[in-house]
Amino acid sequence: MINLRTITKENIEDILNLSVSEEQKGFVSDNSESLAQAYVYHDTAWPFAIYEDDTPVGFIMMGYYEAKQYYTLWKFMIDQRYQNKGYGRQALLQGLDFIKEKFNPDKIYTGVALGNSVAKGMYESVGFVDTGLREFGMEEMCLNFYPAPIHIGNKVWIRDHK
After folding, report:
1. Which residues partner with 49 through β-bridges?
2. Tell me, what's the pLDDT at 161?
3. Which residue, 17, 20, 57, 116, has fewest beta-carbon neighbours within 10 Å?
4. What is the CATH number of the domain that holds 33?
5. Which domain holds residue 43?
6. How many angstroms separate the CA atoms of 39 and 65, rounded?
7. What is this structure's pTM?
8. Is there a domain that residue 112 lies in?
9. Which residues are within 8 A (CB) of 23 and not within 5 positions of it... i.e. 6 or more apart?
10. Closest CA to 45 of 54, 55, 35, 30
């Protein structure tokens, strides 16, 4: 069972030792770089270790991008040894749940490295759409949580009308 856990002094080395294949390294930040960014942006970054039961299998970081004033799926990786097992999709859904439960935004954005069709397909499968924006070697994608109900994992989100 996939679960997200806080990164602590007890598990940081395990997370730093996770990696993607050589072919994927151009698509994904190194976890040490991501954790350095999480440290610097500690008020607006929420990093998590991804575990399958008690085995660390990946890393995900959600954030708030102040310059554009929106929430993001900022970093995401599954170790090469654990790919193609459905862990990425499960972890993604849990990361989206975290943002919805904590902040209840209308939308969440992510960037996908140009040419990373596997990641793009996974994001599309949960409702992300291409915004058409290309910058810094990335294509921007957006998931609208509203106005229609959205199913994330076993939850349904419906906007509270004020």
Report:
1. 5, 59
2. 41
3. 17
4. 3.40.630.30
5. 2-157
6. 15
7. 0.88
8. yes
9. none
10. 35
